[in-house]
Amino acid sequence: MDTENGFLAAKLTDDLVVEILSRLPFKSFCRFKCVCKAWLAFSSNPDYCKELLKIPMGLLYQHRYDEFDNDFDDSAIKLASLPHNDKEFDEALSFLPQYEQLELLDSCNGLVLCKYKSSCTPFGICRFIVCNPATREWKVLPDTPPSDYKPFCNVSFLAFSPSWSTKFYIFNSQRPSTRYWVFGPVKFEVFLSDLNTWFLYDTSVLFEAKVSRPHMFIDGALYVHTGLHDILVLEETSSGIPPSLRTIKLPHEDGAFMGRFGQCCFGQSSGALHYALPEEDARTILVWSLDVDEPYEWSLKYRLNMSQAFGRDNLCQHGAPHWKSDYAVVSLDLERDGLFLIDKREDKIRLYKISTGGLTHIQPEDHRSRFLNNKYYHYVASYSKLPALTM
C-alpha cells in the first residue's frame, strides 16, 4: 500500500470499513483478523458483530467411556458451536486418520491436540496428532520417550499463539498411577515443533495440574491452575526450551471456595490473563485481570450478573456435602465478548454475552452434556497454516 492510499484508508469511517469487510470472501475475512491486534479487535467488536461474518466458535467435546462408572461410549469428537459462515468446516474432525482410539486432549488458538492408540501401540509411550479443523491439516508427532512408570497417567497441553510465533509446543507430564490414585514423581516432556523432537525437563515442583483444569498460553508463557490457589507459569527462554518456572497466587485465598463451586476458567484479552469464578451464592461471576509484571497483581474487571441472565436468584442447590451451583463456568473469551456455561438444571450449553448480559443456547446434537465429564475445550477457528515439522 503506498502512502497516499494508506492515508485515504485511515480516513475511512468504521461503518464503511464494516461494509467492505462484510463483502469479503469468508476465508479472506478470517485472514484479515490475523494481520495485527488492532484488526482483530475491530473484527471482534460487539458493536459490529451482526454485520460481520461469523467465525466458527464453540466448545469441542468428546464422550468418554468409563468402565467403572458404566458410562456410554461415543468416541466421535464434535463441536457445539454457534451458526457460522464456513460451510466447508469439518466440525467432526472426520479428515483425521481412522485410529482405533482417538482421544481429544486440548485446543489452543485454532489447533487441536489428540492422542491416538491401537492394539499394536508399544506400552509406555504416548502418540499425539495435532490438527487444524479449519484447514483440514494434520501432523503426527514423534513418539514420546518410553515411560518407566507402569502404569502411568499423562496430562498434556497444547501451546500455540500465531500472533506470537509460528511454532507450537506440547507439554506432557507423566506420573505413576493406580485405578483410583495418581501419585509420585513427575516426568515432564516438552515437544517443540520447529525441532520436531521431545525434550525432558527436570522440575522439582510437583506438576499436579490436570488437563481439565484451566490453562492458557499467552506470548510464550503457559499458565496452568494447580488445583489449589496458585497458577504455575512456564515460560520459554532463548534456548527454545522452557525451563523458567514460577507461581502466582490467585485473587482469592480460600482454596475451598473454588472447590465448592466447581469450574473456574482462564481467558485472555490484549495479551493479559483473565480469571473467572462464580461468587459463593452463584448470583455473580467475578472476572479478574492479571498484571503480568511483578508483583503480578490482580484487578477486578467485571461482575457478571447471573441472576439477571437466568431470570432467578436461586442458583444453588444443597446437596451433601455442600452447596452446588446450578451452572459451571467452562470458558472465557473476552476477545469475542463471551463466556461459556453449562446449565446443569436444563442440561444445556449456553453462551453469555458480556456486553448485553444475555444467554444464547448452544446445544450438541446428542443433547447429553451432563455426561461429558467437564471435558470441554474452547475453540475458535484459525485459517493460518499448520506449522511445519522438520524431518
Comma- or semicolon-separated keywords:
3 domains; 391 residues; disordered N terminus; At3g26010-like; four-stranded antiparallel sheet; 25 strands; F-box_dom; mainly beta
Q: What can you tell me about this protein's structure?
A:
The protein has 391 residues and is mainly beta. The protein has 3 domains: 1-53, no CATH class; 60-249 and 373-391, no CATH class; 255-370. The chain is 11% helix and 38% strand. The strands form 7 sheets. Strands 3-4-5-6 form a 4-stranded antiparallel sheet, with no helix packed on it. Strands 7-8-9-10 form a 4-stranded antiparallel sheet, with no helix packed on it. The relative contact order is 0.14. Residues 12-52 form the F-box domain. It comes from Triticum aestivum (Wheat).
